[in-house]
Automatic annotation (TrEMBL):
Belongs to the SecG family. It comes from Microbacterium paludicola. InterPro entries: SecG (IPR004692). This is Protein-export membrane protein SecG. The lineage of its organism: Bacteria, Bacillati, Actinomycetota, Actinomycetes, Micrococcales. One of its GO terms (biological process) is protein secretion.
């Protein structure tokens, strides 16, 4: 196993866990887990939802890192088979 492959596997594991956590923090139709951490209060107080927008951006960036680590591991695996 090469160093790059190891780094990509660790990155994939970390981003998978963080992505799961961030998705659970999003506000759904019923409020979701974000209400437990004060997400519902910001909506009730009439704020602009800045925390929700930042959470969306962070989730998208993390999903892109997750996607590219999977593609990188796939390319390394395909190259090692040939």
């Amino acid at each position: 196993m090469s160093v790059i492959e190891f780094i990509l596997q660790v990155l994939l594991g970390l981003t998978s866990l963080l992505l799961t956590l961030l998705i659970l923090l999003h506000k759904g139709r019923g409020g979701g887990l974000s209400d437990m951490f004060g997400g519902g209060m910001s909506q009730a107080m009439g704020s602009s939802g800045l925390a929700e927008r930042n959470l969306n951006i962070l989730t998208i960036v993390l999903a892109l890192v997750w996607f590219f680590s999977i593609v990188g591991l796939g390319l390394i695996t395909k190259a090692s088979v040939l």
